[in-house]
Amino acid sequence: MRFRPAVVIVFVALGCQDKKPAGPLVSETPGPAVMAESTAVTAPSTSRPPDPPPLDGSIEGKPFRPQAASMEGWFVVFRQKEGTGETTIQFLLPAQEGADLAGREWTVGGKVDDPVLVITRPNRKDPTDVFGLDYTMSFRLTKHTHDSVEGVVDLTAKKPAGTFLKGPFKATYRKGPTAPLGPDDAPYVRGKIQVKGAKKTEKLAAGYVGIGVDGKPYSNEAGFPIDVGTDLSSNAESPQHPAQISWLATTADAITYRHLNMPPGDYLVYVRRDTVMSAWKRIKLQAGDQQTLDFTIDPATTGEVAVTLPDSDAKDPAETTLALVPLKADLPELGLGSEHYFNVATVKMDEKTVKVSGIPAGKYRAVRGTDEAEIEVVAGKSAAVTLVRKK
Hints:
Helix content is 0%, strand content 51%. It has strands at residues 19-21, 42-44, 56-59, 62-63, 68-72, 75-82, 85-92, 105-109, 117-120, 128-130, 135-144, 148-157, 163-174, 188-195, 201-212, 217-227, 232-237, 245-250, 255-260, 265-273, 276-285, 290-292, 295-297, 302-308, 319-326, 343-348, 353-360, 362-368, 371-377, 382-386, 388-389. Strands 3, 4, 5, 6, 7, 8, 9, 10, 11, 12 and 13 form an eleven-stranded mixed β-sheet that branches.
């Protein structure tokens, strides 16, 4: 999925102390009664105003009380668990992301071109779209940290009737693919991806793999089929380091990627096109590094490989993969089994020959399990090789 669940909402109660003046004091002494001049005394009160009402709402008259919320870029999602599924209200704010969000406020709804709200429910196959003319909403952010935001939402919809969401909220926050970056995001690597002669739809992915200074392996990859020239994005959370987020995004002007909060280490940063690792570079990241690295993919510098496979036997798995590992390339030490990062095709047991195009010119080690051979790819040509089975 492109958007992930966030943390449980926390509601913050704001209190203050009331100070009440005491009444005048009367002093009585023997003899004639004398009214003493008194001084007002202020005593602190232990009472506090009631907590603000919690986030509350309904969808078509059914209670909707979200336990979690998230904000990724300008995409906001409120979530309520429903058995094994969830009910959500989600929307995209009409703004460009800035460095500090605290104090930002939006009032939307009532116009045809206002953002569409989307309601999803586990018992309904299709989501419900709430168009601009059918709702009004104010959305205000009061606090912003590196990984969370707090604010107040006030939403009322005419269609579907009986739908509203009002109250304070706290949500996890992740910078969007075009937000300004800073020291809190470091170490990071970002850049542009240029595909010469790009197709209308490109299947791209941007990733990295390497060894951290702590000796542990790290990797991540974000990708999806891109309609070139449209505003789309996808992100992925590293399985080894959840704070690390990778983004791949496209706009009318460019295709960009960013890997945020990477652990310091020795990495291969790469771009895949149609499952093939099409461009890469080795980098060494230190604490606090903020690096920019652009890639260019030129199909004119690629060729095709035709790989003949050894006959299968009963011990072979039903499905394996074919990898093309660059030879004499500046690669970091990735350890045993690292060939799978260079996979270019899935191979079935009874297949005899596998053809793959779009391979950058150069020398490779073709690997399928324990079968391998060396091959040189020439731009604009097809190269053939037969894998040899190790005994």
